[in-house]
Amino acid sequence: MPVTDETVWKGPLAGVRVLDFTRVLAGPAASLALADLGAEVFKIEPPGTGDETRTFPPMRDGESHYYLAVNRGKKSIVVDLKTEEGVALVKDLAAKCDVLVENYRPGVMDRLGLGYETMKAINPRLIYCSISGYGQTGPLKDRPSFDIVLQAMSGALSMNGESDGLPTKLGIPLGDLVGGINGPIGILSALYERERTGVGRHIDVSLMDGLMGMLGYIAQLAFFTGTDPQRVGSQHPNLVPYGIFPASDGSIVVACLTPGFWSRICRSIERPELIEDTRYDTLEKRRDARDEVNAIVSAFTERHTVDELVEIFTAHEVPHAPILGVLEALSQPQAVERQMVVEAEHAALGAIPIVNRSIRFTDAEQPAPAAPPVLGQHTDSILGELLELSPERIAALRAAGVVA
What we know:
Layout: E1 17-21, H1 26-36, E2 40-45, E3 59-60, E4 63-64, H2 65-69, E5 75-78, H3 84-94, E6 99-102, H4 108-111, H5 116-122, E7 127-132, H6 147-154, H7 174-177, H8 179-197, E8 202-206, H9 207-213, H10 217-225, E9 242-247, E10 250-255, H11 259-268, H12 283-288, H13 290-301, H14 306-315, E11 320-322, H15 326-331, H16 333-337, E12 341-346, E13 350-355, H17 379-386, H18 391-399
Parallel strand pairs: 1-2, 1-6, 2-5, 6-7, 7-8
Antiparallel strand pairs: 3-4, 9-10, 10-11, 12-13
Helix pairs in contact: 1-8, 6-9
Keywords: Transferase
InterPro entries: CoA-transferase_III_domain, CoA-Trfase_fam_III, CoA-Trfase_III_dom3_sf, CoA-Trfase_III_dom_1_sf
Protein name: CoA transferase
């Protein structure tokens, strides 16, 4: 009996089964992306508390905000991997899955008897993705990693913050979330390759590698100059004006990315003579006169409200944005039109708002994502439907503490 309703288009990965051994954030973000694309994700959780984030406050009726954020659309099965029968069960599941994702420290899955070579022997088509802080090799591979540590080690933290203060970590935990980007990219490419070769492969995703890869032009700037880029707050190291400017009732973002935008900015702030001013007529000159240019723009913006500036800059097609809080951002007309917040029926909490998937397909519409599961919500259905275990066998496993 299929575990999914094949009459509903779940997404382009419909029919792909994922065995998910991930916890906390980096790994769950990766399996979340696969679930959003239509894959059926079986989240393996330990007895007791399950994924550690189920205990992270604040809570509502025993459910954690953190767990809810990155586990929508998945199915929870509780298996004790410290038992031989538990390991045997997940091996049986792996034989019927396309992808395995884990984010333990290197070596842990091997010690559990679930390492790549073991699983490859069971299912040669299995794509096995390991996500870790520093990767499967190198002198740091066994060191614990957290988002702020990765930001520091990758060079990203050194550039974030005001020039006259301490470095400031990114508000979004990009050090972890990069695993939710690079993991699925590797998995999707391996799935494509498997169509030709018929075999899977092991993917080694390092979060530090991922953040270093995101340094982009910043790294190239360092190579060119031979020096570390310095912190410039919300400004750009080379583009001016670019950053946050004061308004009479708050602040607003203005970004000048090309020479054409400079002329629009000059007209919008009622200083058209600056367009031909030889002090500011190139990117390099504006960069070198950063304080002067920013002062000119600020002198205009601080005399107007944010709403007035939005109207002015919109009329002149100047890249800009008001600085929205999270709730305001999620309720703005653009987010509403794109249905970025949807309602899902949670087994314990009832109807709850969740953030919708961020990748859409224009020729077919996926149903809204399912709510994140309560602990062990799908244990019986997965064991019964996928492994075809009888109710009596499942009851015996539960009585023995192998599943819950």
